[in-house]
# Entry
Amino acid sequence: MATTLFSLTDTAASDHEASAAVGLAPAFSPLYQQIKVLILKSLQTGEWKPGELIPSEMELAVRFRVSQGTVRKAIDELAAENLVMRRQGKGTFVATHAEQQVQYRFLRLMPNSGDLRSEGPAERQIIDCKRLRAPADIARSLALRAGDAVLQLRRVLAFQGAPTILEDVWLPGGPFKGLTAERLASYRGPMYVLFETEFGVRMVRAEEKIRAVAADAASAELLGVRVGEPLLSVERTAYTYNDLPMELRRGLYCTDKHYYKNELS
Amino acid sequence: MATTLFSLTDTAASDHEASAAVGLAPAFSPLYQQIKVLILKSLQTGEWKPGELIPSEMELAVRFRVSQGTVRKAIDELAAENLVMRRQGKGTFVATHAEQQVQYRFLRLMPNSGDLRSEGPAERQIIDCKRLRAPADIARSLALRAGDAVLQLRRVLAFQGAPTILEDVWLPGGPFKGLTAERLASYRGPMYVLFETEFGVRMVRAEEKIRAVAADAASAELLGVRVGEPLLSVERTAYTYNDLPMELRRGLYCTDKHYYKNELS
DNA sequence: CAGTGGTCTAGACCACACT
DNA sequence: GTGTGGTCTAGACCACTGC
# Structure
């Protein structure tokens, strides 16, 4: 690890002058931010995989030639962003969608009373799964070029026998080469866990656009509701480590027995 | 400030034994958590009001007889929860809904392209404002007893001339004694700012339950849509400092030109 | 200039988990 | 016991703000 770190004292003055001359913002980050970026790189490259133990704070401090406190602050931020998980007495682990207390980390749906766990696992039915060339809008959302290969998956989730979610999922063809309907259908457990273990793609964060729409004929049929029934439209873009979009998901949620829960602060 | 703090070393051993004897969980928090609670108390009692400067880290360290680093960690958490705001070189300020970069902190609505600011301020029209006895469901949400006095407000928000949000707001009668339709109508600026300045009530966090519903006759009329049109139903409970519910808000959002934006991580 | 928050260090000790 | 993360301290220096 011969990575060179810049201490604030070494470079602050000269850099401020340089960047002023070129008209750039002072692009200097504190040491712990630089450490954070280095750790992030190791996560991206897969040096430490989801669920694995990363080196201890002291080891990292030695490797990066900084104090333990500086490493600690870097890891603190990574933990706040749910990229790693600290466990006192054991160490720091790469976050994973597996073995989480909440089964679906990005699914904000709740039954009108109780919680999702009390409803048992969702019954999943895959309607369709095919490879195709990305239409312009899908391509844009996935940071691809129109016509690039993508994988499309359509499925229905039912809770306690009631079809509740109809969703279309688009994945970039490259990273998910080899994903088939059979592979998906035979997999027990959350989709994002399969993505991690089989394709090395970890979803880190997501953005959702939510609207109310009327059920069209096809959706109504699959969800067992009347045409025109109000449905919650949830369009999710999920990102992996470097803000790289890796999944587009368009869901239609029945919100008679469930609601979408959000916490603001 | 004669508040007594318990250091971990002083009390950890004996307390563990004591609590084990009584069958309680070890209720000991680290020093910085105790400091955080003390600062929180000063925020609740209004010793420092929204927008005001709180004592410097050094002053608080002296007051609480701990090191600056411990105070710092307490304030770090308060800042992460948006209860205070740090500004380098100036100090730490009590968070306020006023003078925030984003006008509506709890409003997640975005135009299909651009952002809310680019649409200019919302036009607000108050439909109704009255005092009444709380129905059972409203009372429960506001932690009141059925029949307690509440204030109900109904209004429409329009963006660029298009009615977009119809919302009913319920407020507990006690804390908001003296709030009238005129007072609301004449007030320029966000409602939550008025709550802070006139009633000393600061909304700290909120929970929302989101569903898709069909417009009924009254809502359709007020929003200028057809009856049966899908609308986003957003039920928000807003809380002040000690997780005390202080507002219930039921909104119907038109989501043809806007969407509800959510970020997951 | 002094005062604020922000960073970095070094060292001590505590709480927890495994062996 | 050893090693991990968690807390607490003290002191140094940096960056920003306003006098």
